[in-house]
Amino acid sequence: MLSNKNRVRNPWTDTLARLEDERVMLQRIAAGVPLADVLLYVLHAVEAQSSVALRTAIAFVDESGKHLVHGAAPSFSESYRQAVNGVPIGPHMASWGAAAYFGTAVYANDVMTDPNWSDWREFAVQQGIRACWSTPIKGTDGQLLGVFSNYYATTRLPSPQDIDAIALVTRTAALAIERSQYDRELEKRVELAIAERDRIWRLSPELLAVVNEEGRYISVNPAVRDILGWTPEQFLTMPLADLVHPDDYAATAQVLMPTANGAREARHLENRMKHSSGSYSWITWTISRSEGDLYMAGRDDTDLRVQAEALRHAEDALRQSQKMEAVGQLTGGIAHDFNNMLQSISGALYLIRRKLAAGNLEAAERFIDTASESTERAARLTQRLLAFARRQPIAPVPLCPVRVLQSMEDLFRRYIGERVQLILHTDPVSWPVCCDANQLENALLNMVINARDSMPEGGRLALQATNRVLDKASLLQNAELAPGDFVEICVSDTGCGMSDDIKNRAFEPFFTTKALGEGSGLGLSMIYGFAQQAGGFVALDSSVGQGTSVRLYLPRYTGAMPPVEAETGTVPVPVDDSVPPAVVALVEDDAAVRQMVSEALAQLRLEVLVASDGLEGRDLMGQTKHIDLLLTDVGLPGLNGRELADAARQVHPDIKVLFMTGYAQNAAAAQGFLDTGMELIVKPFRLEALLERVRRILML
Fold first, then answer.
1. What does the alpha-carbon distance between residue 663 and residue 680 come to, in Å, rounded to a whole number?
2. Rounded mean pLDDT of 269-281?
3. CA 467 to CA 432: how far, in whole Å?
4. Which end of the chain is less packed: N or C, by CB atoms within 10 Å?
């Protein structure tokens, strides 16, 4: 330990001078002056201020942390630098090695007697060293950075003022060394980042490019050769109009070139870029903007586009195949049922002719009934097909679903039998709906019959009408419908249920799980078509052994409800000939239908004018002075029935119109097709029903 009696008078200048030197040193460090220059300035300042001969040196700790390497020694020769460069850190390695080893200052008053200098005395004699003070240089985190040494030609120890001055030097040196290390680390990181960017630029399989504010490519990576066949030099010399497909140029220029306000905010771009072979490749670009330039990464999606197109064609082919399969199933079912009906009609007509020839009128009457029944069965089949295809002519009216269920309760009970328990929930607060009443009743009856057939051993059948408010999530499978108020009519049974395969095909026309001849397979498909036509949808829930629930959703009707009328039986009104004289224009393109209708109208002693198509009917309207009723088919060559009716009213403003149709898309919609004074009758109809309708219209 040093004592006051060992210390000598401070040979350095006053503290103010040292503080001024420290200020200059810190300015140089902050300005980024190289480390060697800063340390040389520090050491020169220290030596210059000393009142006795003084030489100084700084050594650094190497990267291994085990050796000292020469840093700065402005007053020593090259032989000194070589001797101290790379010395190990440890005791007996002169003052500097010991100071680095112990981490504290080591002051050698006389190197000739100091044990740390036992191996370095000859060196000391050569360099003229007699005293050496070495102080560790430590960073802000306490890490050893180097050693600062003072050398004297005579023996001496430091005073407190000397120690303060040494502390100033080591503190300044530590700042300079740390700043230098930070700069070197930063340079390494920058070099690594640049090298990494260059590797990415050179090796990236994606197209990387930079576009300037004029919309011109100013840099592109080597991947352009693999993707588009151009060298980077060729690519950069080509204008944008030559690189981009003509159909994509406008959209590309809008993204790459500045707009009026200079903003280019697009993040993605897809376009076709020209290949050196003359073909085009689809490139999907990701774009970012910095300082006016666009930095773009492009992926070649040409193969994906080709695959997507091939997949689309495959999907189209699959859909077409499925359509043809459905058409085959549909036509097979239609052919089976219609052939049976035609066979009944054909056989009945043959037998009628035989019975009439034999004078057996009573037997002929029986076969007439058979032919009429088969005709009605065929009519019902076509109506079901039209309902499935949403092409059935409808007459929507506001009605209350609960009243419909109540009115059909007795009918339901007759159909389900005694083994099935019927539970009818008749909540009177159900919202009204607007749909074709006959179709709704037919749909409900089909739902009940299907439920009954699923419970051959009996069970429970529940019917209920419930108000529902459906949101978008509830209509995911029916995205064409708007969220809102609906009435749910649910028919639930405790029957055998359906497997997933059967559920997926339940709404297909002519698909049935019943035995041959026991079901047409049009029940659920008709319900599906009716729901679609009425602006709603149908849902099916079923599990094997758990039963089935068929839910029919119809949109709520918000208009005025008609007054409730007393229920009356549907007693047919006999046709009579109490009709005032009138002129009827009959327009029908089917000759057989035209002949039968014309002869039937003659029973009412009406004057009947006939035409075979729309154009002929229009000429008939213009050539006739007075016509009371236009009886026309909807689907006509030339002009359709509605167009003919409009033309007729221009000539005869008060003419009444009765449309005949078995299929007509506009008539099926029943929204705006029928105007005031127009009515619709659906084929096939009984001639007596047609005559009654004509009589009623003419009597109005």
1. 12
2. 91
3. 10
4. N
Output the pLDDT for position 376: 74
For the residues 353-372, what does the mean pLDDT come to? Answer: 78
- The whole-number pLDDT of residue 321 equals 67
- Torsion 589-592-593-598 (CA) sign: positive
Decide: residue 195, CB within 10 A, 0-12 exposed, 13-18 middle, 19+ buried: exposed
Higher pLDDT, 185 or 575: 185
Residue 699's pLDDT band, with cuts at 50, 70 and 90, is: confident
In degrees and rounded to multiples of 5, residue 607 shows phi and psi of -85, 120
Residue 162 carries which DSSP code? Answer: H
Burial 417-442 (b: 16+ CB within 10 A, else e): eeebebebeeeeebbbbbbbeebbeb
* Whole-number pLDDT of residue 50: 80
Q: Residue 300: phi, psi to the nearest 5?
A: -80, 110
Please name which of 588, 672, 571 lies closest in space to residue 630, comparing C-alpha atoms: 588
Taking a C-beta distance cutoff of 8 angstroms, is the pair 430, 466 a contact?
yes
Which of 396, 393, 385 minimizes the C-alpha distance to 436? 396
Percentage, residues of the chain above pLDDT 70: 80
**Do 439 and 475 meet the contact criterion of CB atoms below 8 Å apart?**
no
Burial class (CB in 10 A: 0-12, 13-18, 19+), 663: middle
Q: Which amino acid is at 411?
A: L
- Cα–Cα distance between 434 and 464 in angstroms, integer? 18
Cβ burial, residue 106 (10 Å; 0-12/13-18/19+): buried
Spatial CA neighbour of 536 closest among 613, 631, 468: 468
Specify whether the CB–CB gap between 524 and 509 falls below 8 A.
no
Average pLDDT over residues 298-318: 83
Contacting residues for 345 by C-beta, under 8 A, at least 6 apart: 371, 374, 375
Average pLDDT, the chain: 80
Is the separation of the CB atoms in 529 and 574 below 8 Å?
A: no
Please, which contacts does 563-570 make with residues 24 or more away whose CB atoms are closer than 8 Å? 564/403, 567/407
Rg (CA), the chain: 52
Quick one: residue 301, left, alpha or beta (phi over 0 = left, psi -120 to 50 = alpha)?
alpha
The tokens describing 499, both together, are 């497997």
- 3-state secondary structure at position 289: strand
Pairing of strands 537-543, 547-555: antiparallel
Q: Please tell me the distance from the alpha carbon of residue 72 to that of residue 384, in angstroms, as a whole number.
A: 105
Q: How confident is the model at residue 366 (pLDDT cuts 50, 70, 90)?
A: confident
pTM of the model: 0.39
Cα separation, 419 vs 452, in Å, equals: 9
Q: Look up residue 384 and give its amino acid.
A: R
- DSSP H helices, 389-473, are 401-407, 409-416, 437-453
Q: For residue range 205-232, what is the model confidence (pLDDT) as tens digits? A: 889 999 988 888 999 999 999 999 999 9
CA atoms 510, 512, 516, 519: torsion sign: negative
Q: At what angle do helices 160-203 and 35-49 cross, to 10 degrees?
A: 170
Predicted pLDDT of residue 463: 92
Count CB-CB contacts under 10 A for residue 314: 10
Predicted local confidence at residue 3, as pLDDT: 31
